[in-house]
Amino acid sequence: MSIDQAMPLPWQAPIWSRFIANRRDGRIAHAYLLAGPSGVGKRQLALTMAAGLLCQSPEAGLACGHCRSCRLRIAGSHPDWRLVEPEARGGVLKIDAIRDLIDYSHLTSQYGDHRVVILHPAEAMNRASANALLKTLEEPPPGVVLILVSHDVAGLPVTIRSRCRIERCPLPDSAQVADWLGEQGITDAGRALAAAGGAPLAAREMAEAGHIEMLEALAGDLGELLEGGRNPVELASTWQSSGSLMVLTWMQRLLTTARRLQCNARDGLAMTLAPGFAKAVGGLPPRRLHAIDRQLQQLRSADRQPLARELAMEALFLAWLIPEADIE
């Protein structure tokens, strides 16, 4: 989403209503934490919140798009807002970036009542970065609004979470987003949502990139792996050309689908993906899925290190075969 498209998504209406009510009543929090799975539009919501706060003539809480403040924001030169993200996708939010944020937060607003900082994704902070941010959360400068976006809120320190107003951004109901996906040119919304684990923006991204068929194939291969019909080393070789980071991302989306099936064994959306995969993961105990998730998270962290790609890919498939004795 570009910063000139500051609109909440249809399924974000309850959160947006609370936010504009808080602004009307003068109860804007100094720090928000938008928490939920990847691909549901949390970054877009954060940008919409920031735009509304900075606008000099908001309309129903939304940025007008025409005032001087909006024009500066759209041009990327507004002095009262910052978007802080890792230098590379999947990278770390380094302590220098957080220190710059802290220095910026103590400046005086030039155009209005608020200065806004968006931190995305918040879990990309390392321990030093989180500790540096904590003091600002404990003693926020007047007029500063921090908006933290997190795809993995459990990965944030409790000290950070406890000092934010948390807005949960769960997966929306599939029926709720079908029309929206149709408006985006996605003709088979159910299939796209199944591939993306129910996340609408991820569904659109995968459909536009032509990745749905590949994820369905991966689901089928993992189903056979779990049933003992495929070898992890063989599968690693098969998927090598896709790259370990891409395969890891798809696997994590498939874990979301697996959890949906555990909550509802007849979940129509989840069962759409791959019958073999649905059958295989439907019989796994929850603690097995948690163990797989931990392994994949560790491998995502390790992916930032200069490891051999072959070893990384094999480890991804071996993660699905954790021995029962090794599960805590």
Structure commentary:
By secondary structure, the protein is of the alpha/beta class. It is built from 16 helices and five strands. A five-stranded parallel β-sheet has the order 2-3-4-1-5, with helices on both faces. Helix 4 (95-105) packs parallel to helix 5, helix 8 packs across helix 9 and helix 11 (232-238) packs across helix 16. The protein is globular and about 65 Å long. The mean pLDDT is 88.
Number of strands: 5
Shape: globular
Q: What is the CA-based Rg, rounded?
A: 21 Å
**Largest sheet strand order:** 2-3-4-1-5
The helix-and-strand class reads alpha/beta
Low-confidence stretches: none
| N-to-C SSE string, H for helix and E for strand | HEHHEHEHEHEHHHHHHHHHH
Average pLDDT confidence is: 88
> Strand share of the residues?
5-15%
- Largest sheet data: 5 strands, parallel
Helical content stands at 40-55%
The number of helical runs is: 16
The end-to-end span amounts to 41 Å
List the SSEs and their pairings.
Blueprint: H1 13-24, E1 31-35, H2 42-54, H3 68-75, E2 81-84, H4 95-105, E3 115-119, H5 127-138, E4 144-150, H6 158-161, E5 165-168, H7 174-183, H8 189-195, H9 200-209, H10 212-226, H11 232-238, H12 244-263, H13 268-273, H14 275-282, H15 286-302, H16 309-318
Parallel strand pairs: 1-4, 1-5, 2-3, 3-4
Helix pairs in contact: 4-5, 8-9, 10-14, 11-16, 12-15, 12-16
